[in-house]
Every structure is written in structure tokens, then in C-alpha cells.
Design goal:
There is one protein chain. Strand 3 (150-153) and strand 4 (156-159) form a beta hairpin. Helices cover 48% and strands 18% of the residues. The longest helix has 28 residues, at 64-91. The protein is elongated and about 85 Å long. The chain has helices at residues 8-20, 23-30, 34-48, 64-91, 105-117, 120-127, 131-145, 161-187, 201-205, 207-218, 231-239, 303-314, 329-337, 347-355, 385-398; strands spanning 53-56, 59-62, 150-153, 156-159, 192-199, 221-228, 245-249, 259-267, 269-273, 295-297, 323-325, 342-346, 360-361, 371-378. The N and C termini lie far apart (54 Å). A five-stranded mixed beta sheet has the order 6-5-7-14-8, sandwiched between helices. It has a five-stranded mixed beta sheet with strand order 11-10-12-9-13. Strands 1-2 form a two-stranded antiparallel ribbon. It is α/β, with parallel strands linked by helices and 407 residues long. The chain has three domains: 3-168, Winged helix-like DNA-binding domain superfamily/Winged helix DNA-binding domain (Arc Repressor Mutant, subunit A); 192-266 and 372-398, Periplasmic binding protein-like II (D-Maltodextrin-Binding Protein, domain 2, 3-Layer(aba) Sandwich); 269-368, D-Maltodextrin-Binding Protein, domain 2, CATH 3.40.190.290.
């Protein structure tokens, strides 16, 4: 069971009963009969294997498990409601914005699938349904919303601007329901949970492994997914609820209005070579010699690459021309091991390689300013108990990290 499988109408009925204190009061607001609401709540209780509501002389009230589920369900439905309003406003086609009460999880899954694969047939196969069924469901969402959601292109179908807004809201709503399932699991006493971390290069080799190793003895069944990739891809995953938090170099200014950044420590950059490099025994390296060697550097547009260019320009030197672009520490280490290449990277990131003799820092002052390293998360993110503990562990692990010193 995951968040995408919940019946949205059942969730609306349940949250209204919790809010209004009774089935009869909720029936009028959600336009469902009392027996239908009773059945909806019974289905939710069966799925969750928990009693969600108790009846008293004063009405119906959520149990402790019901409160947990109601809180997350309210958040999910509110996110979806705002997404519908924003999507309708974005298209400016006269479509009504109050269609959130009429859409279904099945329709939203179809929208996400078509946008992901750009083709109704491929999307249908990926979701295990027939192409006519998925096509019908996807088009039903257009009728219910009054929005044009799909645009034909040379490669298939692309989501419209309104569809992209609705997709993000749907993913965040489903994310909240996944969080509800994790919170209920923790409430039952399970030493488990799910954390998805978007890891930039520094965090993968430095403090993230330490944090994971501290978490697993306490939460032996924890499910931690570490996703690496370009910053923009990870940020997109974070903003769509596919990633819980990002770790790595922070941006100034913050990359989007809906994310917040927390500094953990400052880092510096250094220039490194492999063992046996011609410059490895030099203590007075003429800076002009650096451009005579091939380099390994991150791709254009990354903070480290920008700093490398700034360093060379400050020394009136040309940018290196023989460059292999990668952000992979494993590849960089291998390239330096059997060549005379140089690289510029985080001192903290290279610390393990230095300790094992795989890299050596050259005595060259870069003149860079300290880079803040930390956590990026959505502003409205409400972590589960396990995720909150992981945030604490990350901060504990990062505390001893001093600003990387000069050579």
C-alpha cells in the first residue's frame, strides 16, 4: 500500500467526520450518504488495520491512530486543493478551480504516467493497465477539471503548464499519505521508516555515511534511499516530494521560494594530484605550471567549476583545455591514480582519499571563500519521527567538521 492508492473521496469523508464530529454533519458537506461514509471509513480502517474513530455521547472523534492519519490526510487534500486552484489560474481558460473534490487518485496517476513517459501506450504498459483504459481516465481528468492537460509534440504528448502544476500537487499529496503510513508504523513501535536523500558529491563521501551508520543500529529496518545526480535534478525531485532532503553545498540565493537551507559547516577547496605526480614533492609550485597538466573538474555551471575558473583568471592564467568533466569521486580517483592529471575539489570530500594515500593535496592557495554545506528541504516539510531523528544525527555528525584549513 502506498499513498497513490488511497481513495480521495474516502479521505475527504474521513477528515470531515474528524473535523465536524459526526457522520451526519459530514454527509451534507461531502455530498455522500451516511451509509456511504460509514463504509468509506470502514475501508480505510481495513487498509490501515487500525481503528480510526470512536463514538461517544458527544459525537465521533479520532483515535490516536486516527489523529495521525487525519493530520496527514488534511495536508494532502489541502495541497491538492491549492494545486487545482493554481492550475486553473495558470491556464486562465475560465475553468473552475473547485474541481479538487471531483478528481480521483486514478486520474492523477494517469496524468503523472503520461507526463513521465510522453506516450499513452508506454504509460499504460508501465502501469499495468490497458491503453484504452488509461487514455479514458486521462481524458476524464480534463473533463472534470475543464483544463487542457496534454499537448501533442513530435515525440508524443507533453504536459501543459497547468498539468505540471497539478502533477506537482498530486505528487506532494501522495507523499503526505506515504508519510502517514510511515508515522503509523512508528506509532506501532516499528524501528523502521523511509528516508530518501538527494546527495551531492561532498555528502556522499563525507558525513552522510557516518550519519547512516549511526542511524541503523537504532532503526535496523530503516529504508534509506540515496539518490545522486546533478543539482537541478535533485532539486526538482525535492520540490515534487520524490526526495525528502538534499545534502551538499548550499546556494546563494536559495534556489526556489518553497525550499529552505540549513548550514551544517563550511568547507574549502583544494588542488589535488595522485601519488607519484611530478608536483607531489614540490613545495613551491609556480602557478603557471598548473595549466600545463590535464585536469578533472565538475561540469560547467557547478560552484566548484566556477571557482576553478575564478582562480585561474585571478592568476591571469587561461582555463585548462584538457579537461575531463565528472563529479564522481570514484572516477576522479581512478583518473588521478595513473596519470599526471590534477583536480580541484572539496577538502572534506577528499579527506578519506588523502588518508588512504590515493590523493595528495598540493600546497597551492586558491583564495576561495568558505562554502556552506548543509541541508536543503521544502519549507512546509513535516518530517516523520524517523526523519526528524535523521536530521538530528546529520547535525551531530557535522558538528565536529571544522572549516577546512589552508595548506
Amino acid at each position: 500500500m502506498n499513498g497513490q492508492n488511497f481513495n480521495l473521496r474516502h479521505l475527504r469523508a474521513f477528515t470531515l467526520v474528524c473535523r465536524l464530529g459526526g457522520i451526519s454533519a459530514a454527509a451534507g458537506a461531502v455530498h455522500m450518504s451516511q451509509p456511504a461514509i460509514t463504509q468509506a471509513i470502514a475501508k480505510l480502517e481495513t487498509i490501515l488495520t487500525e481503528r480510526l474513530l470512536i463514538r461517544s455521547s458527544r459525537g465521533m472523534y479520532p483515535t490516536e491512530a486516527g489523529e495521525i492519519f487525519a493530520r496527514r490526510s488534511e495536508r494532502a487534500l489541502n495541497i491538492l486543493k491549492q494545486g487545482c486552484i493554481d492550475a486553473a489560474g495558470r491556464q486562465k481558460s475560465g475553468a473552475g478551480s473547485q474541481f479538487d473534490a471531483r478528481i480521483t487518485s486514478t486520474q492523477l496517476r494517469a496524468l503523472i504516467a503520461v507526463a513521465t513517459y510522453g506516450n499513452f501506450s508506454v504509460a499504460a504498459r508501465a502501469n499495468g493497465v490497458s491503453q484504452p483504459s488509461l487514455y479514458r481516465t486521462a481524458r476524464e481528468l480534463e473533463k472534470v477539471s475543464g483544463l487542457a492537460l496534454y499537448r501533442e509534440s513530435e515525440s508524443g504528448y507533453e504536459p501543459t503548464a497547468a498539468a505540471r502544476i497539478l502533477i506537482r500537487a498530486a505528487k506532494l499529496a501522495f507523499y503526505e499519505l506515504d508519510q502517514a503510513l510511515d508515522e503509523l508504523s512508528s506509532w506501532r513501535g516499528a524501528n523502521s521508516g523511509r528516508i530518501v536523500v538527494g546527495a551531492l558529491p561532498l555528502s556522499r563521501s563525507a558525513f552522510l555515511p557516518q550519519a547512516i551508520n549511526r542511524m541503523t543500529p537504532v532503526y535496523p529496518d530503516i529504508d534509506i534511499h540515496v539518490i545522486d545526480g546533478p543539482y537541478d535534478d535533485l532539486l526538482n525531485g525535492l520540490r515534487h516530494g520524490e526526495i525528502d532532503l538534499m545534502l551538499g553545498a548550499l546556494r546563494d540565493p536559495p534556489p526556489a521560494d518553497d525550499v529552505t537551507q540549513t548550514r551544517l559547516f563550511d568547507d574549502r577547496l583544494g588542488i589535488f594530484c595522485g601519488p607519484g605526480h611530478p608536483l607531489s614533492e614540490r613545495h613551491d609550485i609556480p602557478l603557471a605550471h598548473l595549466t600545463q597538466y590535464p585536469w578533472v573538474l565538475p561540469r560547467q555551471g557547478t560552484p566548484t567549476r566556477d571557482q576553478a575558473s575564478a582562480f585561474f583568471h585571478a592568476q591571469n592564467l587561461p582555463d585548462p583545455t584538457r579537461v575531463i568533466e565528472t563529479s564522481s569521486m570514484v572516477l576522479a580517483r581512478g583518473l588521478l591514480a595513473d596519470s599526471d592529471r590534477l583536480t580541484m575539489m572539496s577538502v572534506s570530500q577528499a579527506q578519506v582519499e588523502i588518508e588512504h594515500g590515493a590523493m595528495q593535496r598540493l600546497p597551492v592557495e586558491i583564495g576561495d571563500t568558505p562554502r556552506p554545506i548543509g541541508i536543503t528541504q521544502r519549507i512546509d516539510w513535516q518530517p516523520t519521527q524517523v526523519q526528524d531523528r535523521f536530521l538530528t544525527v546529520l547535525k551531530e555528525v557535522a558538528m565536529p567538521c571544522p572549516t577546512a584549513g589552508r595548506v
